[in-house]
């Protein structure tokens, strides 16, 4: 058994089809089938139950898959580490970022590339819970997202970026006095709202806003839900509704058609974090990039 056979086996498991796995690996199907048969003969046990073209992992197959993924990741990270020694500060950083935190990145990346122009970025803009899965599966080196999250804290390192307050954002086309800079939850109750909500799981901004409004004895008039703040602000710019968002996001949007109002007596806030795995190799460039966020603490 060698690393090539393990990579073949992992591809078959993940595609759940030998033909698709062969296409992914860019090899012919017969040699791939032969390598699987050879692997099973070497181990002396079936790795799949076969029902025609359908494959189902046996207990031995599930165990081997888990170990194979770990070994392949370890090999890839070892290669990355050696390349870091050889190349210094260059290469690609894979960053997952939550919808509400995407607006932190442009300035950070711009500053970083002024110092390290040979560094490139792979950015995955995802819902918070999807980012956790990407981090756990090693598809990204770090994740920038807002709390709360469901993750084993013993498996990750965390850099806290501090609390951000929220405001209500309304269309300038609405009949709101120019001298008005604050608003109460009772007043917000009368307004149509669009709110951003996580695609799956619970927690996050949406639930926090609902709980905060309940504390003030208010039932919000939510006319639309979306999965990212840009969509929400599009509704506001169009004069359709107001939205409640972290203050700093406003700086990334046109101020011609939107104005912020401070919410009186609101304890609503957002805490963002940078996460990375404890048990995987963190590239030199990724470590350097994390330092860009230290000043946000």
Quick overview:
This protein is an alpha/beta fold and 297 residues long. 39% of the residues lie in helices and 26% in strands. Strands 3, 4, 5, 6, 7, 10, 11 and 12 form an eight-stranded mixed sheet that branches. Strands 1-2 form a two-stranded antiparallel sheet. Strands 8-9 form a two-stranded parallel sheet.
Query: Which regions have little confidence, pLDDT < 50, spanning 5+ residues?
Result: none
Q: Estimate the global geometry from the Cα principal axes.
A: elongated
Number of helices: 10
Largest sheet report? 8 strands, mixed
User: What is the structural class?
Assistant: alpha/beta
Number of strands: 12
Please report which band the strand proportion falls in: under 5%, 5-15%, 15-25%, 25-35%, 35-45% or over 45%.
25-35%
Overall average pLDDT: 86
Could you give the order of the helices and strands? HHHEEHEHEHEEEHEHEHEEEH
Question: Termini distance?
Answer: 48 Å
Indicate the percent of residues in helices. Answer: 25-40%
Descriptive overview:
By secondary structure, this protein is an alpha/beta fold. The protein has 10 helices and 12 strands. The protein has helices at residues 3-15, 18-25, 29-43, 59-87, 105-115, 128-136, 185-188, 205-215, 229-237, 284-290; strands at residues 48-51, 54-57, 91-98, 119-126, 142-146, 156-171, 182-183, 192-196, 221-226, 243-246, 258-263, 269-277. Strands 3, 4, 5, 6, 7, 10, 11 and 12 form an 8-stranded mixed sheet that branches. The chain has a two-stranded antiparallel ribbon with strand order 1-2. Strands 8-9 form a two-stranded parallel ribbon. β3, α5 (105-115) and β4 form a beta-alpha-beta unit. α1 (3-15) packs across α4 (59-87). The two termini are 48 Å apart. The relative contact order is 0.15.
């Amino acid at each position: 058994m060698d690393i090539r056979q393990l990579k073949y086996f992992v591809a078959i498991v993940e595609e759940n089809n030998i033909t698709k796995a062969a296409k992914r690996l860019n090899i012919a199907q017969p040699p791939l089938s032969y390598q699987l048969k050879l692997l099973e003969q070497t181990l002396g046990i079936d790795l799949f139950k076969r029902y025609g073209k359908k494959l189902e992992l046996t207990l031995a197959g599930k165990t081997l898959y888990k170990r194979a993924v770990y070994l392949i990741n370890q090999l890839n990270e070892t290669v990355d580490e050696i390349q870091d020694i050889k190349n210094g500060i260059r290469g690609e950083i894979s960053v997952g970022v939550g919808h509400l935190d995407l607006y932190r990145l442009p300035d950070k990346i711009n500053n970083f590339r002024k110092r390290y122009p040979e560094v490139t970025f792979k950015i995955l803009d995802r819902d918070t819970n999807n980012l956790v899965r990407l981090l756990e599966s090693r598809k990204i080196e770090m994740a920038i997202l807002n709390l709360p999250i469901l993750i084993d804290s013993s498996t990750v390192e965390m850099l806290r970026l501090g609390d951000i307050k929220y405001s209500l954002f309304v269309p300038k086309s609405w009949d709101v006095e120019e001298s008005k800079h604050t608003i109460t939850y009772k007043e917000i109750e009368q307004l149509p709202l669009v709110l951003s909500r996580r695609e799956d799981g619970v927690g996050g901004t949406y639930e926090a806003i609902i709980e905060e409004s309940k504390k003030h004895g208010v039932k919000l008039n939510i006319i639309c839900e979306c999965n990212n703040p840009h969509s929400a602000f599009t509704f506001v710019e169009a004069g359709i509704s107001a939205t409640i968002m972290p203050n700093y996001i406003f700086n990334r949007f046109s101020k011609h058609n939107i104005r912020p109002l401070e919410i009186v007596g609101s304890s609503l806030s957002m805490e963002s974090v940078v996460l990375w795995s404890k048990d995987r190799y963190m590239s030199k460039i990724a470590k350097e990039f994390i330092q860009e966020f230290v000043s946000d603490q």
